[in-house]
Amino acid sequence: VQLQAFGGGLVQPGGSLRLSCAASGSISRINSMGWYRQAPGNERELVALMSNGGGTNYANSLKGRFTISRDNAKNTVYLQMNSLKPEDTAVYYCRMVEGGRNYWGKGTQVTVSS
Questions:
Q1: pLDDT category, 29, cuts 50, 70, 90?
Q2: Residue 3: phi, psi to the nearest 5?
Q3: Distance (Å, rounded) from C-alpha 92 to C-alpha 36?
Q4: Is 89 left (phi over 0), alpha (psi -120 to 50) or beta?
Q5: What is the mean pLDDT of the segment spanning 43-50?
Q6: Is there a contact between 27 and 84 (Cβ–Cβ < 8 Å)?
């Protein structure tokens, strides 16, 4: 099983980015997919998760600016990030729990800077 993330890059403060993460390989039952991020010197933290049933869990500080969505047919999860701030700069990691196993993608860099 592999997770491949796309969509990171450099954006100005106030801008938007959309990340996507596609899971491939021998996938039987996805329990949840979502996003974490890690800024330099910080621990990895939750951004947003979506369960197979569509329930969501967001970091409180990001509610209203970030939106997670999934395309179950494509085993893909998306993260729409709006009103980006310099403090959103981090490596964003995709995570999937499938069949009781935990998988992580390699991460995609998001830099918010003028």
A1: confident
A2: -120, 130
A3: 6
A4: beta
A5: 97
A6: no
Determine the Cα–Cα distance for residues 11 and 13; give it in Å rounded to an integer: 7
Asked if residue 13 has pLDDT above 90, the reply is yes
Per DSSP, helices labelled H in 9-63 are: none
AA letter at 90: A
Rounded distance between C-alpha atoms, residue 77 and residue 50, angstroms:
8
In sequence order, which residues have a C-beta less than 8 Å from that of residue 40 and are 6 or more positions away?
A: none
How far is residue 62's CA from residue 71's CA, in Å, rounded to a whole number?
Answer: 22
Residues 6 or more apart in contact with residue 48 via CB below 8 angstroms: 34, 35, 56, 57, 58, 59, 62, 66, 67, 68, 79
**Nearest Cα to 80, choosing from 17, 31, 4?**
17
